[in-house]
Amino acid sequence: MPVALIFLPAADIPTFVGEGKCDLGITGLDQVMEANMFDSVLDLLDLQFGKCKLQVQVPEEGEYNEPAQLIGKKIVTSFTKLAADYFEDLEKTCGASTGNTTIKYVGGSVEASVALGVGDAIVDLVESGETMKAAGLKAISTVLTTSAHLISSKQPRFPELVETIFSRFQGIMAANSYVLCNYNAPRSIVPDVLKITPGRRSATISSLEKQPGDTEEWVAISSMVEKSRIGHVMDELKKAGASDVLVFDINNCRV
Question: What pTM did the predictor assign?
């Protein structure tokens, strides 16, 4: 596939994609919102990795326990737009003058800002929380929950290629989220078992050769099932009268 890969800081990717310099990009949802580029990019897919929270953090042993207590204080962050929007909404909710809270930009080591006296609180990304705890901070509010997203330009130079790559990402995401469940069942219970395994669109049903001693017709059913539910689904199929329940991983697919 004739694709050039360009490695850029996450904060720059929304601008490069939004201005049409790159057709596709992978960056955090927080970066797209901070760059205010949703008018210029399409949010194609949540890639479900790099999950974290943009949170308001204060000294663990300090006087602040509610975000409203920070109105009129100094807030240090790398996300000045998101922090400013959050505190402007908070000021309106509390009936305070808007713009009364000072938002100060720091590019790195934001968690050290409170201890060094640069600000009263910070707004920063939290993944495991270990860095926050090490800095003696605690979270009192969540501004945004974010993860890595696939974005595209609204006017890509190679739209067919964008669609192909997007489809491949969708296939991998679906393959990671689903398994293929195959089982046999008497035709009389098909309506019941299809309620358990309806599939993404519908299940595949094939007739089985009737064996000596069978009193009714049997069918083989194949259906995509969410991986997180498969244990419960197998139990329910067994209770409903299905047999030979098999589960297979999906390496890739197109949905």
Answer: 0.84
